[in-house]
Amino acid sequence: MISPVCPVCNNLAGFKRAGAIVFAPKIIKEALECDNCQGFFLFPIPDQAEIAQVYQPDYYRGFFRNWWKDYYRGKSVGKKLSRLKTKGKFLDVGCAIGSMLAGIKESCDWQVFGIEMDEKIASYARKRGLTVFTQPLESLNLEDGSFDYIFANNVIEHIPLPLKFLKAAHRLLAPDGVLQLSTPNGPVDIYPSLKLVGAGEPKLTRHTGHINFFSRKGLYLLAERSGFTIKRFKIFHIKTALKCRLIWPGSKRKLSKQITPEASQNLESFELKESERSLFLEDFEKLIPPKPPAWLYNLRSWSRRLYRAFPVPLGADFEVILRRSERASQQ
C-alpha cells in the first residue's frame, strides 16, 4: 500500500483525512491535510489518464468568451515587460488559445512562447502565429536559461508534483529571471467542500481538477526548496474568500448546490471523435465577442491594480513573484 507524502513539503507523517473528493467524473480521491505546511492534497495522486478526464472540450469554452479580456491583459503585461527590459523571452504555461500571448506580442518587442497540452487547442493558437509547445514544463527540451519571464496563472494547483514544476522553471529561467504564479488560497478554496457535505460523502470542489491546495506557508517552502526567492506575495479577492468561508450572505445556500453529492452524480464523462472535436473549435470560435474599445479594458485594468494595491487579511487567491536564485536547491 502506498503511503502518502506531501508533494509540497515532503512530509511523511502527520495528515488529517479531510474527506472524499470528486476529482473528475467517476474518479474519487481523498483530501489529506498536511500538519506541517497546512495545505491539502488529493491522494492517491491522480495519474495522467485521470487528469485528462478533467480537460474535456467544454473546459475551453470560457477562453473563447474571454478572448478580448485576456488579449488586453496581454497588452498590459507587454507594457510591464518593456519596463523590465527592452527585449526578452516570455513563456505562458497553460496558454490555452493564446489570447494573452497575442496581446503581449503586439505590445512589446519580447518573444512570446506558450505551453498548451491539448494538441487541438495548441494548433489553434499556432494558426495565429504563436509558438506553442505541447510538452509539460518539466520535460521541455530546451537549453537552461531559455526564458526571462515564466507566467503560470492558475496552473500549479493542477500539477501532481509542484516541486518538480518549480525546479524546471528554475532551470529554464535566465539568471535573475522571474516566475509569476497565481493560485487559489488552498485552505479557503477547499473550505466549503469540507464544511457543507457530510462526512464520508464524496463532494465536488469549487474548481474541478485541483490536486494541490496551497497554503501561504507551503508556497514559501516550495520556493525555498526549488531555489527561488519570493520578491512579492499578494492576497486578493476578499469577497470570494468571505463566500468560501460561508460568511457572505447567501453563500452557504449557493455553494451547497455546487458541491453536494447530488451535483457530483450529475457529472458525466464523454469523449468526442476527431471530426466532432474539430467542430467544437469552430463552434467555440463564434463565442469570441466583437472587439471592445481599448479604454474600457484599460479602465478595468487600472481598477484591478488599484484594488490589489491594498493589503487584505483574507483572500481567495495568491499572486507570487519569484526571482531565480543563483543556487539550485539540492533538496
> Outline, from the CA principal axes?
globular
- Number of alpha- plus pi-helical segments: 13
Q: Could you give the distance between the termini?
A: 25 Å
Content of β-strand: 15-25%
Average pLDDT metric: 88
What is the CATH architecture assignment? 3-Layer(aba) Sandwich
CATH topology: Rossmann fold
Provide the number of structural domains.
1
User: Given the helix and strand composition, which structural class is it?
Assistant: alpha/beta
Total count of strands: 11
Order of strands, widest sheet: 6-5-4-7-8-11-10
- The residue ranges in which pLDDT falls below 50 over 5 or more consecutive positions are none
Instruction: State the fourth-level CATH superfamily.
Output: Vaccinia Virus protein VP39
**Fraction of residues in helices?**
25-40%
